[in-house]
Amino acid sequence: MTNAAEIKDAVRTRYRTAALAVTDTSCCGPAASSESSGFGADLYEGSDTIDLPDAATLASLGCGNPVAVAELGDGEIVLDLGSGAGLDVLLSARRVGPAGLVYGLDMTDEMLELARRNQREAGVDNVEFLKGDIETIPLPDDSVDVIISNCVINLSPQKPDVFREAHRVLRSGGRFAVTDIVTTRPFTDEEKADMASWTGCLAGALTTEDFVAGLEGAGFSHVSVEPTHQVGPDAVSAVIRAIA
Question: What fold does the segment set 4-243 form as a domain?
Fold first, then answer.
């Protein structure tokens, strides 16, 4: 079985490559790399992203649109787990307005640099990008109203820690609203050892039953998993909601 450190290094390498592909101005620019056109970019309405920097959309490697399902309100504090180039953070900042605040948490320096550049270009002030791991969130207890995430939790080799940390930082009654990959069957140890499949968001994905059990074990209630579209022969993208 591949260990946690190897998985995190491989994930960091993949997302570093994606960030650098978008920022590379040599040759043909961002479009020259297939890594920079994540399949998540097609899941947003054009009107939502029309006035955001192109790099925020080009580096979208998600599997859904969590902002569309999070029901964000004015003045709320939001945390995006694995915020990448900042697309969902910038969209959330609009929803919560000047009285709200959106944190973007990512472990990859190059993605954080790209996200902060996108923030400056978009002229958005109510945003703060943090470096850190989603298994050890660098925020105080009971400090967040809503947690969103876009196809990132499946990449963690320590999902129970992610669920516990998410519950810790959410205020009582806070909302967990993420899009992620769930599998229709448990994967074998051999399949889970495929690093390309891990970084491609499949080998580390949980079944619906395991996702629900993991959230409930961390203290969440009203957990629901709603499949949205097929992403592989044994996997679907889904909207996962829960209450802290």
Answer: Rossmann fold (3.40.50)
